[in-house]
TrEMBL record, chains A, B, C, D:
Gene3D superfamilies: 3.30.70.260, Formyl transferase, N-terminal domain (3.40.50.170)
Reaction equation(s) it catalyzes: (6R)-10-formyltetrahydrofolate + H2O = (6S)-5,6,7,8-tetrahydrofolate + formate + H(+)
HAMAP family cross-referenced by the UniProt entry: PurU
Gene giving rise to this polypeptide: purU
Official protein name in the record: Formyltetrahydrofolate deformylase
Gene Ontology biological process terms in this record: 'de novo' IMP biosynthetic process; one-carbon metabolic process
ACT domain mapped to chain residues: 7-87
Active site, renumbered: 229
Organism listed in the record: Aureibaculum marinum
Molecular function GO terms recorded: formyltetrahydrofolate deformylase activity
């Protein structure tokens, strides 16, 4: 294997000796362990590991590694995935009217802060095309009405498949994706909800936040699931506000929270920091990365 | 009038010249304006003012002041209140099992940080009596069952009335007060809810926060109203948490948020910083106080 | 005067009746007061006001207004300025290698979040030219060596004057401007320092933050003054970090703090929210804006 | 060994296979690994581990465990310590005038949040004796003048030794301890500095923060070392402030930051979460504890 960083994400029922067994396995195969992060959920009796390996100097091939690992994984009931760091994720961004998250992602990608390939921006409006063009990213305008929703989603799916998209980012895309769409991309769609979930689920959260007189507003990035606004939460943040904020001011302040929260969530996904278990996202912090 | 700080809280329909008229009034009566804070709600077309006056050197009596002020207030539709700063508020604290908020309030009161008189602690359990006794505050044990609820609330009301209590603090009191009780003390009951409202309204918020996998937990201090957990929000704060937190850990981290949020809300109330309008609390910051 | 928002910023020795006198003045001239924010510094015995007026319906001309206001201002020792909201500020951005603040400002300006005109980007390197070009902003490359510093600054000054620049933003410009340059633009140069001032003044703050093992890193936006990193602080923020952060990680996390802090400071300046007094910046919050 | 939680803290030069070797060792001795946290400092080429073990079911004695562990530790250059969780730390609190941190620690200890024994409060003033007495903790009044400093420190040292004190908490103790004193208790003295270090080192930080016009104030808990305010930082936090805060207001707001930061630092120390390396404190988060 080439010199590269290999990341395994593992979850399984908790058991005596798991750390020793797993780290031993990689040590014996000639890997140096760059970082090894664990989480034991004693309530569910579950064990989670994110282990980053330096493959420099190892002779083992990918397929051999996986075959051997399976021998360890199977009896212990591992659910696992591996990323070899030799291929950037292909990302598609879905937008409607709001530009702040789109700018943020395109800029971070361009500056190397988000290590991925943005294959396209898809929108149900023409409005944000100039931004995609500034960054030389293809822009697909796919309008949608109640009657054409099914067809539009089909077109999106074709675009995603044709471009081998690995991650779909809903960067303030104001359409509700169908269950059928969402179920095709499990843990592959990240949405930003413009409130501190589970507060203000659904529409118009800033207006409702104003009416409720909250003193903090927030944003939540989560994986999209069939149940709207109910998917595993990846990242959240809030900002302090006062009675003097109008719904418009809340929206503006909220936009800065949204862009940061969404960017952090995408980065966590790209860097293989997330394991989803039931409806909870285990998000390991970066470790010397 | 003696040398003292007089605070007026005013709300009314917005109108041209309100600042000039009001500040002129006090200026002409010989007051020096220590601070004058305003908030215009353009959506509701409402005007709010908190004005703090130095009465030093004024000859006008309280009743004269109020009579004259009424002449200004009536035609302009003021809703107003005045506090002369010559009398500390009497406070009663309601508790059940959790001690952290009780400690915090008693200690802040003792150290002069909360400028009020704690007349009593009332509880449906004996558990926290030793804490009240440490601080030499009377402790009333009034147990409650479904059948005795009405009678117990009556006893509480008698205690509050006999002690001329101005403010009731629900410092993690785990009973739901009846509408009849709450309506007797409008904007005089402050509750601390152990979550970031409107998220996780109702029971067991930390357990539900754990299950939802949130990345922030919060606390909300609000005035108690008939609609449980729906009253005007005075103060909120959050703390960052991770997937690695159990419901117990969340509870512990949350306790530190709760105590600070509740203490701040009480301080705002005592210092006449709050005007409630519809279901929103306008909370003016301290100004050189 | 046209229908527009007029903002006065006033500072003077504190005195009885100032609010009444000032608000009366504007009321009598036919202005509606949109917001009137005050701050009394009892330590220095100084009074500060930011008052926003709706000029709709007033007949008075700008010069008449100012002449009349001077009659009030002079005997009371006002230091004051007025902004008529009919002209956008011209902004120049100085950069070197780091792109994050530049992107942020250009994008916010383009989206209407920063209501100003970006006249140019000036840099001692060619590196960031493509970003300026994406946003159709002229880019001036003015390299500098120890020997050419004086001449380069002269060229910058000429550019600024020719373009009637009102505000200079040092968006991670890694050259130290001479005193002579800085003194030409008092309270017109905003700098972002990549640490929580006064911690880590000077060079390499992230490296030093790493070595010191801090648990928070921050950023500070301030007006540039002769004393490097000592000018009036406009805005600060911090982000939590851990022992696991390398100087590079700190730099990356810090970049997100820097961009937000700088954008907020620019916005405060543009919206006439700041009065500098001695070395302190009084920054009034937005009020229903 | 009894059923209990055993915690090892290990630091050593980084090396291939360390995780595997260490976890293997404990696995082979019959321990279940509750949590295993690591940190690799690639800059210094150092490895750090905090490993928590469940000793239930192991037959090995403490001395056997340590002898065997030494065989692993020596060739790999471990610096290590072990805590068997069967003995609470003895804590002494040093105070002067400010009460907020003292209250906080005593209350948290009493409520089980800080799992330690508070053996005594020592002060150079009589002022806070009533608080210690409320909590039934011995209070030693040891006044100090320039001439008696040496003698007073000697008396403190005798008290600490006689009471087998493991941890000394400077809870706003306003005397500078001598180098000779500090060197007797390496990594055993925690101090709270009332500012965001390294900003405002030394005296009167709130007054200087006011004069500097900062927009955030903070607090820093660190181990005391010979170089005043320069020891390894354990925990920091900040709170937002405005120009409207006087030095007194800053002090009051700061007090709430101080008490939380100090309590968190003490908890980290008590729970064996800290490894000091050079002047940096590696502070592992709690993990399912």
């Amino acid at each position: 294997m080439d010199s590269q960083v290999v990341t395994f994400l593992i979850s399984c029922p908790d058991n005596k000796g798991l750390v020793a067994k797993i780290t031993n396995f990689f040590y014996s195969k000639g890997f140096n362990i760059l970082s090894c992060q664990q989480y034991v959920n004693a309530i569910e009796n579950m064990y989670f590991m994110r282990i980053r390996l330096n493959a420099e100097g190892t002779k083992i091939s990918k397929s051999d590694l996986e075959t051997k690992f399976l021998e360890l994984a199977k009896p212990l009931g591992f659910k696992w995935s591996v990323n070899y760091g030799d291929k950037k994720l292909n990302v598609a961004i879905l937008v409607s009217h709001a530009s702040h998250c789109l700018y943020d992602i395109l800029e971070r990608q361009r500056e190397g802060d988000l290590d991925c390939t943005v294959k396209m921006v898809i929108s149900n409006h023409e409005k944000l095309r100039p931004i995609a063009e500034m960054f030389n990213v293809p822009y697909y305008y796919l309008p949608v009405t109640k009657d054409t929703k099914e067809k539009q989603e089909e077109e999106i799916i074709n675009l995603l498949n044709d471009n081998k998209v690995d991650l779909i980012v809903m960067a303030r895309y104001m359409q509700i994706l169908s269950s059928s769409f969402i179920n095709k991309f499990p843990e592959k769609i990240i949405n930003i909800h413009h409130s501190f979930l589970p507060a203000f689920q659904g529409a118009n959260p800033y207006k409702r936040a104003y009416e409720r007189g909250v003193k903090l507003i927030g944003a939540t990035a989560h994986y999209a699931t069939e149940d709207l606004d109910e998917g595993p939460i990846i990242e959240q943040a809030v900002e302090r506000v006062t009675h003097d904020c109008t719904p418009q001011t809340l929206k503006r302040i909220g936009a800065d929270v949204e862009r940061l929260v969404l960017a952090k969530a995408i980065k966590c996904h790209i860097q293989n920091q997330i394991i989803v278990s039931k409806n909870r996202a285990v998000v390991f912090p970066e470790s010397g990365e």
